[in-house]
Amino acid sequence: MEMPDNIFIIGPMGVGKTTIGRHLANVFKKNFLDTDHELEKRTGADISLIFEIEGEAGFRKRESAIIKELTTKNNLVLATGGGAILSEQNRQALRKNGFVLYLSADVETLVGRTRKDKSRPLLQTEDKRKTLTDMMAIRDPLYRQEADLVVKTDNRPPAIVARDVAAHIQNQSR
């Protein structure tokens, strides 16, 4: 395997995609983008407001348009939204245009990391643990199916996870 031009990060909310993605971008001297941040920047609205006005379907449509565009760029580390994997169009764009990294964590870890977060519309529920468990039952097989590499982030500092991922990619590139 040669050094990938693009690294696309998939995984559930709270797993560390943005933080670890920034570290990876630094290691590989690549540009870093996050699809949610790009969406907010372009629309001038935060994700919660987009969900409120357009619903999840409207948000997913916007997310897919951004993924379609950004996956054609070069020299990029891209953190995707947790649900981006649900779209076959998104999965194809990721698979075709770069190295796909699945950051994984136990539901307990995700619950802990998102406990106080009010900015995640799909987690504004009575039982975050059940919501995350239900999401992962659907999404985990899709994440695994698309991933070139699966890395657990539970109880691991983001810089260490990024270092380990970088070492794996560099070893595979030799």
Summarize the helices and strands and which ones pair or pack.
Layout: E1 6-10, H1 17-28, E2 31-34, H2 35-43, H3 47-70, E3 76-79, H4 88-97, E4 99-104, H5 107-114, H6 128-146, E5 149-152, H7 158-172
Parallel strand pairs: 1-3, 1-4, 2-3, 4-5
Structure commentary:
The protein is built from 7 helices and 5 strands; from the N terminus they run βαβααβαβααβα. α1 crosses α7 (158-172) and α5 crosses α6 (128-146). It starts with 5 loop residues before the first strand and ends with a helix. It has one domain: P-loop containing nucleotide triphosphate hydrolases (Rossmann fold, 3-Layer(aba) Sandwich), CATH 3.40.50.300. With 174 residues, it is of the alpha/beta class. A 5-stranded parallel sheet has the order 2-3-1-4-5, sandwiched between helices. It has helices at 17-28, 35-43, 47-70, 88-97, 107-114, 128-146, 158-172; strands spanning 6-10, 31-34, 76-79, 99-104, 149-152.
